[in-house]
Design a protein that fits this description.
There is one protein chain. The protein has about 280 residues and is of the alpha/beta class. The chain has a single domain, classed as Rossmann fold. About 30% of the residues lie in helices and about 20% in strands. It has 9 helices and 9 strands. α2 packs across α3, α3 packs parallel to α7 and α4 crosses α5.
């Protein structure tokens, strides 16, 4: 493991511990916050994002948790190879290996957007590792996807211009005119065209194979679904599809869009913390 200081890239607490793990198929960057002996909360970002998307939530979550944020392969400070798989099960496998390297035996896993699908794949692969799941604005299936207007499709050139990136990112928020953080635009620009398109295809492929509620119903894991009601990428009413998962809980957040963890961190943290207070496994 190579340890480096977080620097300005790490948006979270002042005590963020940034490190890079050398895996067989690429280096994986991660950040850790909070007490080392606290219950582990793994935070997985969505497509074309990074550890920074969870940054505003970190101070709210790490008083009671050891928060671990991971840059999936192809994103953030992790490697961006052109000859490795970006399929969601492979991304989940790498996350599991990273937790193994850190000595983590149990974790609540939270994922935003497609990160929730990665969290689901990790629970499928490693049920003994994942104690519970939190999905934040994760569409349950492709029929819930809101097709973008032409202005919101992927960049026509690479690297994209700021204008192209702002159009692309606009639907991640509940209202037009929301000031999109520059860091989010930089996260997309920091990808390669290959990693950008491959990760988008990977999410579609995973959902085409089987809808998330069907996968989750078989796992028997405690599940919390948090959904901004004004999501412009996934129909918020589709969150009710997760009721097919026995014992699942759904928290709707009125007035928030696809990225409630950025738009209103305290409101997003409240149901998450109430859920993890019941379902975390302590290490002591």
């Amino acid at each position: 493991m190579t340890v480096s200081d977080g620097g300005p890239y790490v948006n979270g607490s002042a005590g963020s511990r940034s490190s890079t793990l050398s895996l067989d198929d690429g280096d994986i960057h991660l950040c850790q916050d909070g007490p080392r002996d606290a219950p582990v909360l793994l935070l997985i970002h969505g497509s074309a994002s990074s550890t920074r998307s969870w940054g505003p939530m970190v101070p709210l979550l790490t008083g009671s948790h050891r928060g671990i944020r991971i840059d999936l392969l192809g994103h953030g400070r992790s490697a961006k190879p052109a000859d490795r798989s970006y399929a969601l099960p492979d991304q989940a496998r790498r996350a599991g290996v990273a937790l193994d390297r850190l000595g983590v035996e149990h974790a609540v896993v939270a994922g935003h957007s497609s990160g929730g699908a990665v969290a689901t794949a990790l629970a499928e692969q490693r049920p003994e590792l994942v104690t519970a799941l939190v999905l934040v604005n994760t569409g349950p299936g492709l029929d819930a996807f809101i097709a973008p207007e032409s202005a919101a499709t992927g960049p026509s050139r690479w690297p994209p211009t700021d204008e192209q990136l702002r159009r692309l990112a606009s639907t991640a928020f509940s209202r037009a005119g929301y000031r999109i953080p520059q860091e989010l635009l930089d996260d997309v620009r920091g990808m390669t065209r290959h990693t950008f398109t491959a990760t988008m295809r990977a999410t579609r492929s995973y959902l085409e194979q089987r809808a998330l509620p069907d996968r989750l119903a078989d796992l028997g894991k405690p599940l919390l679904v948090i959904f901004g009601e004004d999501d412009r990428r996934w129909r918020s009413s589709s969150a009710r599809d997760y009721r097919a998962v026995p014992g699942s809980k759904i928290a709707f957040l009125p007035g928030l869009g696809h990225s409630p963890l950025l738009e209103d961190p305290p409101r997003t943290a409240a149901p998450l913390l109430a859920f993890t207070a019941i379902h975390t496994v302590r290490t002591d």
